[in-house]
What does this fold into?
Amino acid sequence: MTQQREHWGSKIGFIMATAGSAIGLGSLWRFPYMLGQNGGGAFVLLYFGFTLFIGIPIFIAELIIGRASQKSVVKAYSELAPKSNHWRLLGWLNIFTSFLILSYYSVIAGWTINYALMSLNNFTEGKTPSAIKAIYEILYKSADISVFWHLIFMLMTVGIVYGGIRKGIEYWSRILTPALLVILLGLFFYATTLPGFSQAAHYILYPDFSKLSTEGVLNALGMSFFTLSIGIGIILTYGSYMKTQEDIPKTGFIIGSISVAVSIFAALMIFPVIFTFGFEPEQGAGLVFKTLPVLFAKLPGTTFISTIFFILFVFIALTSSISLLEVLVANFIELFNWTRKKAVLFSGIGAFLLGIPTALAGSGDLFKNWQDIYGKDFFATIDYTSCSWMMPLGGLLTIIFIGWFMDKRLVQEEFLQGTKMTKLLHIWLFLIKWFAPIAVILVILQQTKIITWN
Ligand code: PFF
It folds into this structure.
């Protein structure tokens, strides 16, 4: 018996679920610290350019592949390229990358639960900004606490994905995504009143290319993929739950704009704190946890605002982590005929186990010589490898597939169905066939030192 594929219940539900996947730790946690480590405005400009000319076109490509095949990644490629078996491997690369990312995503999201609880306990009261900042270091070094919250967060993710796309993913995304946007906007307006705001705005919006390294260029590309959830099969999977009358190009632009806007608002909220209190922008992965509580401590109703903020932070991480888990689950159900329950448990337990070394990275209890050997701790190694290498590679292969191997008529039909943006078809085709692949290849060649330019 063939099972009917579940579809999104409504247009807005689909947009919210996709926006929920896109807006996540990427915009609020990863973007600000990457921007601080890669020199400011030039990184932002590249991130913006990559999103517009590479990210959104890939996003549209993934929706098309998903909707045209009505399958999850591995089967989608075998369905659309029946003569070649190799494209299946791209599906597996997607699955593996999602798995790696989910493993550490959950650790960071676990820290946000921890911060919500700390906020409820008024943890900033009577502390100086440096003392508030130092709490993150204590947390990072506390292996047991990190593992504990990682477990809790993974259980929450597993619970929702088990509920299925309609009841689970769509329902929660509709409520939580708008709530977070409202609170972010409020905090942004408050940040504009801080003395460091204009310095921060200059740092973020004024591009100084002398501060950008070649690794920074690759990082900006990976960042754009991360926030859009592309290059790892998520958007393809969500596209496969899409109905035919929905507008694919428009969805690409809406989600692309929302995720860039949220990233930039998040930075405009965090960097004024950094400049007001004389912190360093290059704080690394702890940046958001070190700075935002300092901002909250200055506000009236600290406990309330800080608690609500971190609770919402947990929820937006959830609407993203469920999309990462869904890629694994959807494939295991489809490939091996597993029940949803079995697929969810298998993937959730696997990602939990792999997340443990990340949760222990700060304590140094495991892999003591990792940093000396690889130059980064375990957490940073997985983050860098998956986001700056595997995602861009996954995205590159996806557009090569759709631009050069997939049935042209089907591609065009899917693009045009339900959209008024018909004039964009040729621009999009040019971007995915020529511009985006060449640009991604050049960035990768430069980073592998096969070619160098200054
Ligand atoms: N786009 C989401 C975020 O920015 O947090 C979730 C996400 C999806 C992160 C896919 C990473 C990723 F590879």
